[in-house]
Design brief:
Protein name: 3-methyl-2-oxobutanoate dehydrogenase (2-methylpropanoyl-transferring)
Cofactor: thiamine diphosphate
Radius of gyration: 20 Å
Number of helices: 12
Order of helices and strands: EEHEHEHEHHEHEHEEEEEHEEHEHEHH
Distance between the termini: 32 Å
Number of strands: 16
Enzyme class: oxidoreductase
Keywords: Oxidoreductase
EC number: 1.2.4.4
Shape: globular
Length: 336
């Protein structure tokens, strides 16, 4: 589990799946702040297609947990209007590939309102997006479009990799006065972890070292952190010590933590599901090359998806980064 918090009580830590942690976080927000609303397709009576919002409408009513029409642009546009009236809406985009009808609202209105009003208008809107592959879904259900949003000034873009971060990062996203695009790694929804709901969380955009190492840094976020842990286990059997850095936030990026790790290990491999071409790994590679030029003993390498439309489910294991592809990058970096 990422070291993102310090316990302040003796309350027993709860074990829960990542999806349940988000549910508990949303429940806490609804219970403590009457201005928090949840909106989206099937989030109410059904409890969401992944049951992330299960039971919330039953407990908080249809005026707080709102089933919307199938209209992503309308969902986000309504959330913007509610934010202007002082509410803190949390909207769900049912799947990653469905966000594009709302892209105009997000990048031309949601992201710009704070600057357009010279700081007078806040936009406390959270856009929840289940993203990524690995579940055998059909077209438009397995994409990783985080770089498209990270490129847009005015948006915060985050993605938890474990249940504890899912709980606390959602709390922090809801409390933010800036819009947050909250990417939820759907293939990790059922992964369990320990959550202390009475802890003090670390900063939302701070990367965390989840495994110490000396020979090379693996930087990842969301669904790829677990894969990097598996890679580090295999590498350890071969006598190689890999450090794993959970970035947690894609925008802003915690370059200071990446730099600190790379100055120690002198090698960096960035791993994400999204295509390598113009992906977040490209910005990390460029910035770390500038910052750590005299420390690096190998070029920064990237492992990710291919520059191609996401394939049918039967081929997704060939498309997605796996153990062998990351280990190959590690071997190439260490060979310099």
């Amino acid at each position: 589990m990422a070291e993102t918090m310090t316990s302040t009580t003796s309350t027993p830590v709860k074990s829960m799946a990542l999806a349940k942690a988000i549910n508990e976080s949303l429940r806490t927000a609804l219970d403590t702040d009457p201005k928090v609303l949840i909106m989206g397709e099937d989030v109410g009576k059904l409890g969401g297609v992944f049951r992330v919002t299960d039971g919330l409408q039953k407990d908080f009513g249809e005026s707080r947990v709102i089933d919307t029409p199938l209209a992503e642009s309308g969902i986000v546009g309504t959330a913007i209007g509610l934010a202007l009236r002082g509410y803190r809406p949390v909207v769900e985009i049912q799947f990653d590939g469905f966000v594009f009808p709302a892209y105009d609202q997000i990048v031309t209105q949601l992201a710009k309102m704070h600057a357009r009003s010279l700081g007078k208008v806040k936009m406390p809107v959270v856009v929840r997006i289940p993203y990524g592959g690995g579940i055998g879904a059909v077209e438009h259900h397995s994409e990783s479009p985080e770089a498209l949003f990270a490129h847009v000034a005015g948006l915060k873009v985050v993605s938890p990799s474990n249940a504890s971060d899912a709980y606390w990062m959602m709390q922090q996203a809801i409390q933010s006065d800036d819009p947050v695009i909250f990417f939820e790694p759907k293939r990790r929804y059922w992964d369990k972890g320990e959550v202390n709901t009475e802890a003090i969380p670390g900063p939302l955009h701070k990367a965390q070292v989840v495994r110490e190492g000396t020979d090379l840094t693996l930087a990842a976020y969301g669904p790829m952190v677990k894969l990097c842990k598996e890679v580090a286990d295999v590498a350890a059997e071969e006598g190689r010590s890999l450090e794993i850095l959970d970035l947690r936030s894609v925008s802003p990026l915690d370059f200071d933590s990446i730099q600190t790790s790379v100055e120690k290990t002198r090698r960096l491999v960035v791993v994400h599901e999204a295509p390598v071409f113009f992906g977040s790994g490209a910005e990390i590679a460029a910035r770390i090359t500038e910052r750590c030029f005299y420390h690096l003993e190998a070029p920064v390498l990237r492992v990710g998806g291919y520059h191609a439309p996401y394939p049918p489910a039967r081929l997704e294991e060939e498309y997605l980064p796996g153990l062998d592809r990351v280990l190959d990058a590690v071997d190439r970096a260490l060979a310099y």
